[in-house]
What does this fold into?
Amino acid sequence: MRDRLLEVRGLDAHYGDFQALFGVSMHVAEGEVVAVIGANGAGKSTLLKCIAGAMAVRGNAVLFHGVPIGGGPAHETVARGVALVPEGRRLFPSLSVEENLLVGGQIGRKGPWNLKRVYELFPMLEERRHQPSPSLSGGQQQMVAIGRALMSNPTLLLCDEISLGLAPIVIRDIYARIPAIAAEGLSLVIVEQDIVQALKTARHVYCLQEGRVTLHGEAKTLTREKISAAYFGV
Ligand code: ATP
It folds into this structure.
């Protein structure tokens, strides 16, 4: 069995009095692509925020390389090798494509990713390198967001709904690059509402419903019926 890179154990998360996650457990092996699926409000983004250090977590609920992380500050988590592609991309609108990418590299971790490699992965970004990021299409902006995260040379890349609001052909184009990213030895956690895309891309799938894991298993063993029951509770 491959080594466990990330282990989440009985994770609870709260926004004030509201509990968003209830005892969530999951693990990600080195070099593995894992998908977390679920409807709106299931707790997917909250789970990623807890792993990325953007939300406080109890002592050892999130272990990375066996060491407790979580509870921030987020830049410390990035320095350990965890990068988040946030929902909605959150590019710096006053910066060019290339400047956005360079911000991602500021943490100074060593590894295979640099401007040249990101432009090889997404050649259209090199053509637009000096353009302001808001002038790009939604799909191209998503590529910048992924490239910016890769520039920090993470060992774990967390992607929050990278297909949101994009045309199917653009989604396919972006997902077609995931194997090349994983081939560099990265592990990925992909949060998705698009079940078909998640099952195609990931080896292991977790389904969240109202803050609880309702199903998990190898993608190839999960039937549509099982997933519908876990996803919608029907
Ligand atoms: P979506 O696909 O809509 O982003 P999600 O599965 O990522 O959904 P979360 O964003 O993690 O779900 O939200 C889980 C629950 O926590 C929801 O009920 C949501 O309303 C609530 N929630 C999320 N962010 C906050 C916040 N900042 N303050 C209060 N409640 C929040």
